[in-house]
């Protein structure tokens, strides 16, 4: 497996914004690479690395906070998609995400975030309205279209989330409607015919 040979220098389990700031500043001062871990589902192994400091974001406080007035939801970057969707479902809202319920929202959004709602609602990163980011200096900024717009651009697909450790994200939501899930089973030899027909 991809993770079997991973040997990080340290795993820091954070429980506050200040913990992240201290960990990032320590890593920068000691020339350690950083691998933020949200849900830990990275297929390419981005949530761990040999010799890196893994910053595990799953213990960040805050929970899922939906603001009905603005139609936005604010979440810690390590929260799972299940937690996001459970809160938003009660309000008849959603954000575009993938389909694996235990994926962390931070890694998904910073990597794009393609899913079943992408055709009508865009990618997860398209719904991002602001993000709190701990920069390599240990300084914390909130990036949006108005504040730190270059960083905001990079977080929404321009840089894969590699400009700091994102700790809190705010997303625009959309109203949910009934939908159907369809599964198509076919033999591999029928693939061209099925795709053309679809």
Structure write-up:
- The chain has about 200 residues and is of the alpha+beta class.
- Helices cover about 25% and strands about 20% of the residues.
- The chain has helices spanning about 15-30, 80-90, 105-110, 120, 125, 150-160, 190-195, and strands spanning about 10-15, 35, 55, 65, 70-75, 95, 130-135, 140-145, 165-170, 175.
- The strands form 3 sheets. It has a 5-stranded antiparallel beta sheet with strand order 4-5-9-7-8.
- The longest helix has 13 residues, at about 15-30.
- The protein starts with 9 loop residues before the first strand and ends with a helix.
- The mean pLDDT is about 90.
Could you give a short description of this structure?
The chain has 198 residues and is an alpha+beta fold. It contains seven helices and ten strands. The longest helix has 13 residues, at 17-29.
Helix content: 25-40%
- Average of the residue pLDDT scores: 89
Task: Briefly note the structural class of the backbone.
Answer: alpha+beta
Largest sheet: 5 strands, antiparallel
Radius of gyration over alpha carbons? 18 Å
SSE string, helix = H, strand = E?
EHEEEEHEHHHEEHEEH
Sheet with the most strands: spatial strand order: 4-5-9-7-8
Q: Which stretches are poorly predicted, pLDDT < 50 over at least 5 residues?
A: none
């Amino acid at each position: 497996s991809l993770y079997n040979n991973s040997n990080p220098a340290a795993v820091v389990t954070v429980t506050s914004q200040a913990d992240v700031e201290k960990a990032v500043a320590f890593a920068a001062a000691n020339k350690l690479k950083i691998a933020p871990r949200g849900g830990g589902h990275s297929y390419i192994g981005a949530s761990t690395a040999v010799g890196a400091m893994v910053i595990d974001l799953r213990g960040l406080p805050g929970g899922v906070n939906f603001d009905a007035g603005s139609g936005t939801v604010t979440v810690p970057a390590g929260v799972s998609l299940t937690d996001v969707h459970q809160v938003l479902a009660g309000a008849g809202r959603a954000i575009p995400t993938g389909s694996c319920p235990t994926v962390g929202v931070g890694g998904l959004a910073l990597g794009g975030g393609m899913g079943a709602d992408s055709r009508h609602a865009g990618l997860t990163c398209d719904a991002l309205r602001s993000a709190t980011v701990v920069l390599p200096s240990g300084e914390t900024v909130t990036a949006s279209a108005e504040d730190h717009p270059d960083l905001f651009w990079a977080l929404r697909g321009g840089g894969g989330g590699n400009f700091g450790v994102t700790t809190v994200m705010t997303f625009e939501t959309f109203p949910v409607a009934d939908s159907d899930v369809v599964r198509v089973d076919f033999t591999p030899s029928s693939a061209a015919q099925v795709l053309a027909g679809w």
